Amino acid sequence: GSSPDDCQQCPPGASSPTIGANSSETCASCRAGTFGGKPGLSECTDCPPGSYQNDTGATSCRDCEQGSYCAKGASAPLPCDAGTYSDKTDVTA
């Protein structure tokens, strides 16, 4: 190719930190707790506080669940401690 536009982007839900990659095999699925919301990412983004993602290769994060809290980069909702509760779906800590 003659320009960066000739290079193929990794698909949404994947990323590649590799410079000079010559194969789509360098595009790795985003791990649980992260997402790739657009194509061509060099790294996946941590799910923001108040959300989680339990799947790999995700393009977005899920809202945290009632009775739980979700810190940044959560791969699962964590249950509220005994003596506490949450009736919201976006609790961060």
Any descriptors?
mainly beta, 8 strands, two-stranded antiparallel sheet, 93 residues
The Cα radius of gyration reads 17 Å
Let me know the largest β-sheet: 2 strands, antiparallel
What is the percent of helical residues? under 10%
Number of β-strand runs = 8
Task: Tell me, briefly, the overall form.
Answer: rod-shaped
Strand content: 15-25%
Order of strands, main sheet, comes to: 1-2
Number of continuous helical runs: 0
Name the structural class. Answer: mainly beta
What pattern of helices and strands is seen along the backbone? EEEEEEEE
Give the mean pLDDT.
Answer: 93
Terminal residue distance: 48 Å
Poorly predicted residue ranges: none
Describe this structure in words.
With 93 residues, the protein is mostly beta strands. Helix content is 0%, strand content 17%. It has strands at 14-15, 28-29, 34-35, 45-46, 51-52, 62-63, 68-69, 78-79. It has a two-stranded antiparallel ribbon with strand order 1-2. Strands 3-4 form a two-stranded antiparallel sheet. A two-stranded antiparallel ribbon has the order 5-6. The radius of gyration is 17 Å and the shape is rod-shaped. The protein starts with 13 loop residues before the first strand and ends in a 14-residue tail after the last strand.
Give a nutshell description of this structure:
The protein has strands at 14-15, 28-29, 34-35, 45-46, 51-52, 62-63, 68-69, 78-79. By secondary structure, it is mainly beta.
